[in-house]
Write a structure and sequence with these properties.
The complex is a heterodimer of chains A (about 290) and B (about 350).
Chain A lengths: L20 E17 L2 E8 L2 H6 L7 E6 L3 E6 L10 E5 L3 H7 L6 E8 L12 E7 L3 H13 L7 E7 L8 H8 L4 E7 L9 E2 L5 H4 L7 E6 L2 H13 L7 E4 L15 E2 L2 E2 H4 L2 E3 H6 L5
Parallel strand pairs in A: 7-8, 7-11, 8-9, 9-10, 11-12
Antiparallel strand pairs in A: 1-2, 1-6, 2-5, 3-4, 3-6, 12-15, 13-14
Chain B lengths: L2 E4 L1 H12 L3 E7 L6 E5 L18 H4 L3 E10 L4 E5 L7 E6 L1 H15 L6 H7 L2 E6 L10 H4 L11 E6 L2 E6 L2 H8 L4 E2 L2 H21 L7 H10 L4 H9 L6 H5 L6 E7 L5 E7 L20 H13 L1 H7 L9 H5 L6 H13 L1
Helix pairs in contact in B: 9-11
């Protein structure tokens, strides 16, 4: 088997010492399953091989390939690193494999390969304000990044989360948001699309929150993730206010089969989402020349 | 670099000898259909070094059409999983590769082994593999390798290279593995006149292209710049896309196409296998994601992608050469009229209009 297990003797070992699991899935145990939102569940898991668990580091923004035994493999974005937090993925049941995943129970096993991809450019944005803009389950890929930013709070200016969902039931990670709010200087603005009984917060679309939050444009970066309609309107608002195209960052998704740049299913224009992405700036996305 | 001169008999002997320790593959002509296959040799006498280029590219041996890449058994009761690696390393000899197929293997090497990650499955097949190429003495009707710099003779990447001359086969050594093989034999060293004779043979073959290789012409270098910079009109891409039947044949016969799909399937004994199969970017479901979002819906988008892959600079940087090796197989199999040489012609026509 060619997985590294700390021996660093394989062609896929990285000089940084962060060796991804490339070929053979490592088995993880599902410890706990939590309902997050309608059709969205969070799976907390741990590696059976504790050596692998110690070696396993995820940069915020990367993804893993997750095997549901008997059903197949899918790419899932950005679980936080096990060192910081419990290792977990949040998945909406959409296709064949994710439905099979939702049918599992605690104690069942999954396979994990990875981590793959480039990750968020935290080194380059030190000292800047971070604006997170998420729509619906778009908060999943941003979650690990928020955790990272709060852990290195002193490195950044204002940290703002603008979050919108269809209804209050669709809001993800509510307990986490309550915990994050207790951090000094973490500003949260949440909205739902339509008025609802018992909801006393904002109603409307996410891009309308930009003014409400009095978002700083200079010396800021925006991490945007959500459905295409929301993505386009939010980016339109930011560009109108004079934000640079390089300061708008998003993560893209594609069908992936290998995760290591070989199967080519995730090609957009001249890049491969798995090795060149999944994190792109808006300037890069614009020049890809394909539908997102 | 040493050179030797071997008789036809010695060549056969070499193949026979390698068969003891290796799986030897070589071109064979089916006696009934006259079709050429590059298959494992059951009998050395079946090896036909004068046969035209094989119908299927040699990539099949290193990157099979369908292959198990993982086997596992999951017991839902005990929640226990067992995994095994089903592919194995075997010493192989590819005997009598046409230069275009050899270039195809080099492209695959650079793509699978030379990028950020190494593909373990390909590496396993490729690791103990001896490449023996064979110079083309005359072009075949569909060839255009002179346009893509991959023939009619091989200039790199081989362990041994054969050229048929008057006195027998000129054997050029191209690697340490090849030299070790030569050192183990008492082969007759070649003379200077053999080398000049080889050059004459290659020149004669190139001269024969206008007369014999009449099916295809593709001035690839001329259109690469245009495709890379996006100067090809969308009407031209639509014209090309309209002729695509989405059969995927061009990808399957292409020596450099390497897209694959991965599927898990349950076998009858409860075990599961992970299969890796060839895929084609012309298929409608190629980029479709769960939830039916398909970012590459129109057919011309997908066609466009394949020719970008073959003929654009960013991709050539990965391959260190154009992605087309000039074998002409895609033109053979295409039920429309959009084999790569024709696409190059369409784009050229657009330039001259």
């Amino acid at each position: 088997m060619s997985n590294c297990h700390g021996s660093h003797a394989h062609g896929n070992c990285k000089p940084t010492g962060l060796c991804p699991i490339v070929t053979f899935p490592e088995v993880v145990n599902i410890d706990e399953i939590r309902d997050e939102a309608p059709e969205v569940k969070t799976f907390y898991m741990s590696f059976l091989n504790k050596d692998v668990e110690r070696e396993f580091r995820i940069k915020s923004g990367q993804f893993i390939m997750c095997t549901v035994f008997g059903a197949g493999e899918f790419a899932v974005s950005l679980p936080p690193s096990p060192e910081n937090d419990r290792f977990h993925i949040s998945v909406r049941a959409v296709g064949k494999v994710t439905h099979a995943l939702h049918a599992l129970k605690p104690g069942d096993k999954l396979g994990v390969r990875g981590p793959f991809g480039n990750g968020f450019p935290f080194e380059e944005i030190k000292g800047k304000n971070i604006i997170y803009v998420a729509g619906g389950i778009g908060l999943i890929p941003l979650r690990s990044s928020i955790v990272h930013a709060l852990q290195h709070r002193e490195d950044f200016g204002r940290i703002i989360l603008l979050y919108g969902a269809r209804s209050s039931r669709d809001l993800m990670y509510q307990p986490d948001i309550q915990i994050w709010k207790q951090n000094a200087g973490f500003e949260t603005f949440i909205t739902i699309d339509r008025p609802e009984a018992g909801w006393d917060g904002e109603v409307g679309y996410v891009h309308q929150l930009i003014d409400k939050a009095n978002v700083p444009i200079d010396n800021s970066v925006a991490f945007v993730c959500g459905p295409p309609v929301m993505f386009n309107s939010v980016i339109g608002e930011f560009l109108k206010r004079g934000m640079s195209e390089d300061a708008i960052v998003s993560t893209l998704e594609r069908q992936m089969k290998c995760g290591i740049g070989k199967c080519q299913h995730c090609a957009i224009g001249r890049t491969l989402v798995c090795t060149d992405g999944p994190v792109y700036t808006y300037r890069q996305i614009k020049t890809l020349g394909e539908q997102i | 670099m040493s050179m030797y001169i071997l008789s036809s008999h010695e060549i056969k002997q070499l193949a026979e000898e390698l068969r003891a320790s290796h799986d030897v593959y070589g071109p064979q002509v089916d006696p009934q259909t006259q079709q050429v296959f590059f298959d494992q040799l059951g009998d050395v006498d079946a090896l036909n070094l004068e046969a035209p280029i094989p119908s299927m590219p040699v990539k099949e041996i290193l990157f099979p059409q369908m292959e198990q890449v993982l086997k596992y058994k999951y017991d839902a009761e005990t929640q226990n999983v067992e995994m095994a690696k089903p592919y194995v390393e075997k010493p192989k000899v590819l005997f009598g590769l046409r230069p275009c197929d050899l270039s195809g293997i080099q492209v695959l090497d650079r793509f699978f082994l030379g990028q950020e990650f190494v593909d373990d499955v390909y590496l396993t097949h490729r690791r103990q593999c001896l490449l023996i190429s064979n110079t083309c003495l005359n072009p075949f009707p569909q060839c255009f390798c002179v346009c893509t710099h991959s023939g009619p003779d091989a200039d790199e990447g081989y362990d041994l290279d054969l050229t048929k001359l008057q006195d027998g086969y000129l054997v050029k050594v191209g690697s340490e593995k090849g030299q070790a093989l030569a050192d183990a034999h008492d082969w007759k060293p070649a003379q200077a006149h053999h080398l000049s004779e080889q050059k004459a043979v290659v020149d004669r073959c190139i001269d024969l292209f206008p007369e014999m290789a009449t099916d295809n012409k593709a001035w690839v270098a001329r259109v690469m710049n245009r495709i890379t910079t996006g100067f090809v009109k969308s009407e031209t891409w639509e014209y090309i896309g309209d002729q695509c039947f989405e059969c995927g044949a061009c990808s399957f016969v292409c020596p450099t196409c390497s897209c694959f799909n991965v599927e898990d399937a349950r076998m009858c004994d409860g075990e599961c296998e992970r299969l890796r199969t060839h895929d084609s970017c012309s298929f409608e479901g190629y980029a479709r994601m769960a939830g039916d979002h398909n970012p590459r819906q129109p057919v011309e988008d997908r066609r466009n992608k394949r020719f970008f892959c073959k003929l654009s600079y960013p991709q050539s940087k990965k391959y260190l050469r154009p992605g087309c090796v000039g074998c002409g197989r895609c033109q053979w199999v295409c039920p429309g009229d959009i084999g790569l040489p024709n696409v190059v012609q369409y784009i050229r026509r657009e330039i001259t209009e």
